[in-house]
Design goal:
The protein has 6 helices and 9 strands. The strands form 2 sheets. The chain has a 7-stranded mixed beta sheet with strand order 3-2-1-4-5-6-7, covered by helices on one side. Strand 8 and strand 9 form a beta hairpin. The chain binds 5-O-phosphono-beta-D-ribofuranosylamine.
Length: 208
């Protein structure tokens, strides 16, 4: 059984996709031990409560510094017996100490086809705004391992989504979430929980 914690900051539609996939069997061998948010008012915490999943607010701003924040986070994760972290719309940087402690055990969903439209400043609607400004015809979403960079870790899954000529950043965000994010994040968790991927150097491949 893979014990995961899902980190959220906002609406939690990706969290909902994970919860639904566990409940309908698309994700097996996985338990959400806690949903952790940096924001007290994140609707994602309501979604967790609706499914009797423990929700916790751990706001980095309430700690004196990275050291105390990291220590608290690691202690909480240990007490919850969390083995794997899923960042699902989480907008804070994970401290280096936590990334080291959870080496190759943290994944993130990013709303573009990395390495395009990613890195510092590229999150939420901003990503889709830049996609439209650049005039690309295909965008999508990426699930990747988290390292100490921003959106730089090994790629696990990607899914392409067509850009429509009449798209707004809002309509494009909605389609990327519906057609890509909400399917590849649950699929990645299922693959990891069932030992279906391995590393070949920096690359992540599906076991034969
Ligand atoms: C989504 O666009 C996701 O790609 C990004 O955060 C946004 C909000 O996601 N990481 P959610 O509805 O809170 O899951």
């Amino acid at each position: 059984m893979l014990n995961i914690a899902v980190f959220v900051s906002g609406g939690g539609t990706n969290l909902q996709a994970i919860i639904d996939a566990i409940e309908d069997g698309r994700i097996t061998n996985t338990t959400i031990k806690a949903v952790i948010s940096d924001k007290e008012d994140a609707y994602a915490l309501i979604r967790a409560k609706n499914h009797n999943i423990l929700g916790k607010v751990i706001n980095p701003k309430t700690y004196s510094g990275q050291e105390e924040y990291s220590h608290t986070l690691l202690k909480e994760l240990e007490e919850l017996e969390v083995q794997f972290i899923v960042l699902a719309g989480y907008l804070k940087i994970i401290p280096e100490q936590v990334v080291q402690a959870f080496n190759n055990r943290i994944i993130n969903i990013h709303p573009s086809l990395i390495p395009a439209f990613c890195g510092d400043g590229f999150y939420g609607l901003k990503v889709h705004e830049e996609v439209l400004n650049r005039g690309v015809k295909i965008t999508g979403a990426t699930v990747h391992f988290v390292d100490n960079g921003t959106d730089t870790g090994p790629i696990i899954l990607q899914k392409a989504v067509e850009v429509h000529d009449d798209d707004t950043k809002e309509s494009l965000q909605k389609r990327v979430m519906e057609e890509a994010e909400w399917s590849i994040l649950p699929r990645a968790i299922h693959m990891i929980a069932n030992d279906q991927i391995e590393f070949r150097g920096f690359k992540v491949i599906k076991k034969g």
